[in-house]
Amino acid sequence: MFPIGFTSIARVSFGGPEQEPSSDLDRASNARGRRGHGDGGIRRRQDGRWEATVDLGFANGKRKRKYLYGSTRREVVSKLDKAKQSVQQGLNLVAKRQTVGSWLDYWIEEIIKPEREATTYAAYETFSRLLIKPYLGTDRARQVAA
Description:
The longest helix is centred in the C-terminal third of the chain and has 19 residues, at 118-136. The chain has five helices and three strands. The chain has two domains: 40-91; 95-146. Residues 10-16 and 19-30 have low confidence and may be disordered. α3 packs antiparallel against α4. It has a three-stranded antiparallel β-sheet, covered by helices on one side. By secondary structure, the protein is α+β, with helices and mostly antiparallel strands.
């Protein structure tokens, strides 16, 4: 035993020489490695189904996530990849039945307005309001894209 205030630090070996991973590649090749930031999460639920989570950012001070389910990990990985592609294309995954009009409003306010000149924003808003929304505004966005 050690006196009070002293501790022992012991290294435990589990049969074999201790090796540090030589690079990030070695760490990444682990079967249960961590996913990168923004890659989403995959886990197996207690009921046996697989669940994937896509981070959609913040809205009104709250984090928004999309949950995808499947019976196999492979199925969930493919759904996760499709969802990440949709997020990169600027589609709003929160809305279940998104119309062309609501997507145009989102696109103009969230993507065009912060990154373009005021005159470009005004022109795009006018074109969408007068030329696109009256004809395609109530159609579902997925049907128009297909």
